Every structure is written in C-alpha cells, then in structure tokens.
Amino acid sequence: MPKLSAALQGQVNQKLDSIGPSGIRAFDQKITGIPGLIKLTLGEPGFNTPEHVKEAGIRSIQNNDSHYSAQKGTPALRQAISGFLKKRHNLDYDPETEIVATIGATEALAASLTAMLNPGDKVIIPTPAFALYVPLVTVAGGIPIEVDTSSDNFILTAERLQQTLAQEGPAVKALILTYPNNPTGVEYSKEELQSLAEVVKNHPLFVIADEIYSELTYGVTHYSIASMIPEQTILINGLSKSHAMTGYRVGYIAAPADFVKNAAKMHAFLVTSPSNPAQAAATEALANGMDDPKKMCVQYKKSRDFVIENLDKLGFETVPPKGAFYIFAKIPERYTQNSVDFATDLAVRGKVGVIPGSAFGPGGEGYIRISYAASVADLHAAMANLTAFANAEIPVV
C-alpha cells in the first residue's frame, strides 16, 4: 500500500485543505454503527423512482445508448427541461444556449460558482443553509458571507440584504438563495421574492437560485425569482428530490446564454457529460411525470404533521415547514444547546439519528434537523423513541 512521499505532504490546494468534510455526512457516518438506530438524517426520498421513469432508463441501456452525449446534455433532455420550466413556472429558456444538464444539482452549483468567481469575490449565503455552499464558494476562490436569518423566521428580508450589501461593498458578486430551504423547510412567498428582486436589480449581482425542492411544497405555490429577474438569475434544479432519483444524479442550470457559455465550459472540464441512461430517465420524468411529485407530497405532508405534533408535545419549537422534507426543531432549554452533543446523546440513548443544527452555519446551533422522508413505520418508531428519551430521568446537559 503506497504512502505519500514526505516531500509531497501538504502539497494540496490550501483552500480545500482548510475545509472539513460535510457536517451532515460526517455526523451521519459517526452514528451509523449504533445498534437499533433509526436514522432521520439524510435528505433521501422515502419513495422509489416512478416505474415509467425507471423503464425509460432501462430502454436506454437496452438500446445500447452507451456513447458520449452532447456535453450540455442530450437535446431531448434539454428540451424536456425547457418545456417543464415553461409549463410549471412560465420561464423561457432556449434548450440549445441557455440550459446545461449536470451531474446533480451539486455539480450545477460547482460549475456555476467556478465559472463565476474570481479570487476575493464575495457570495452572500443566508443561513442556516445547505452545508456545501460555503466549501464550494471557498474552493472556487470566493469569500462566503454568512447571514444569520434565525431572528427573521429563517427568511432573508430585503432590508437585511440591503444592509449586507452596504456593509460588504462592491466585492459582493452573488447571492445564493435556497427555497424551499434545507434545513428549515421555509418557502419564500411571491411578495418576499419580489422585495428581494427589487434590491438585486440595483446591484451588479448574480442570484443563484437553488430550487431543488421546488416540487415539494405544502399548501403554497412555489415562485421562482427567475420569473422576476431572469437577467440576473442562475436557476439550479434537478430530479433527485422531485422524482426520488438521488442516485441517478441529474440536475441542471438554466440561465442567460452569456453565462451558460462559461458554465457549460466548466461543466465539460469537470465531467464531460452526464450518463445517457440517467438522462433518458430524467427526460421521461420531466416530459411525462410532472404530476409524480404530487403523490409524494400527500404522504410527506402527513408525515410532517405527525412529526410536528409529537415534537410540540415534547417542547420542541418549530417553524412549520412549507416545503422540502425537513423540520428544523429548537432543542428545549432543559437540554444542552450544543447541537452535536444533544444529537449524539439522542442517537446513543434514544436510538434516533438527526443532524445537529450547527452543520448548517450561523443560526443553526441549538437546533436539530429531522428528515421526515423516512418510512411511516420508521417515523412512528422514531417518535416513540424520542418520547421515551424526553421522558427519561437523565436530561442532556
């Protein structure tokens, strides 16, 4: 087994060397081996990929669709993405020049940030936020500006955005806006987005709109900020959450052609092109499976309500999520507010796996993220375990 030469020790990208692993994955791995653990940790849909979508991927393999596709994605997939965005959100994107199919939304984010940022460019990230944004910005040479939104019910207000832009100066190049949000499940209203758009219009600012959970909302309509400021928006989305296709790894970028030209170049350098069977499945999902997420949302809403009802009884405060499949719950004051310590003890003694809120940046400490995308049986068992844990004589201190 080879050992790295002593002369090469530490000879790596210093930015990457300074970044720790994803707090979500690291904690999930830390507790995985605990006997009897019920995991409500990862953002993994609790459904199988729809049959008609799987069949499209199988047909691709059977038809020997095994050669490189166009680097920006197959024409069929890009046309399906364009058609979906038009039907669902009334957005107009040219499939030839304004859309890139990527290896999941993660690669879409990486390609976009790398194509966009120069050393010293600042990127505003409202937190709590998905744990990959800060590392991706940092490795791309940017400076993440984390804005704690916990005092505003986890919404970035127009006033707060304006204040941050004034404080940080002209080096601010982009705003990453995630909605519905991971980890809070908060969705932005049309009015809130319009207020943010009015601020953005007055600055040379990109908005990277991560809308990966846009199809999973409960009782509200999802609006895209791209419909308000398309000339400044980089829209990121994918099939992982909407169609339970996390393993297929299909996402996309939709943006003005001038930006897509460079993002597509970076995408090609990173991955060459997506997998053909995955693209065939994604094409089917977008073209003929627009209603598939609705079936999942019915169960997700029931699961959300069930978990919140149990959390309320145990003194966990929540901002009721209107999208995605997470609950960001405030740890009751009778316990330690160190979310890693609390979540570790809950896993060890209570046999329930959740993610510490600190993994999501400023404003996350003192909270835990619970994924309710698990099976109904697991959710019932987890809430029974949590109840027993909360009623135990030994509090976490």
Describe what this molecule looks like in 3D.
With 397 residues, the protein is of the alpha/beta class. It folds into two domains: 6-48 and 292-390, Aspartate Aminotransferase, domain 1 (Alpha-Beta Complex); 65-288, Aspartate Aminotransferase, domain 2, CATH 3.40.640.10. Helices cover 40% and strands 14% of the residues. The chain contains 13 helices and 13 strands. The protein has helices at residues 14-17, 23-31, 51-62, 75-89, 104-116, 133-139, 158-168, 190-201, 257-271, 276-288, 292-313, 339-350, 376-390; strands at 38-39, 99-102, 122-127, 143-148, 172-178, 206-210, 233-238, 251-254, 317-318, 326-330, 352-353, 355-356, 367-371. It has a seven-stranded mixed beta sheet with strand order 2-8-7-6-5-3-4, with helices on both faces. Strands 9-10-13-12 form a four-stranded antiparallel beta sheet. Strands 1-11 form a two-stranded parallel sheet. Helix 3 (51-62) packs antiparallel against helix 10, helix 4 (75-89) runs parallel beside helix 10 (276-288) and helix 5 packs parallel to helix 6 (133-139). The longest helix is centred in the last third of the chain and has 22 residues, at 292-313. The protein is globular and about 60 Å long. The chain starts with 13 loop residues before the first helix and ends in a 7-residue tail after the last helix. The relative contact order is 0.18.
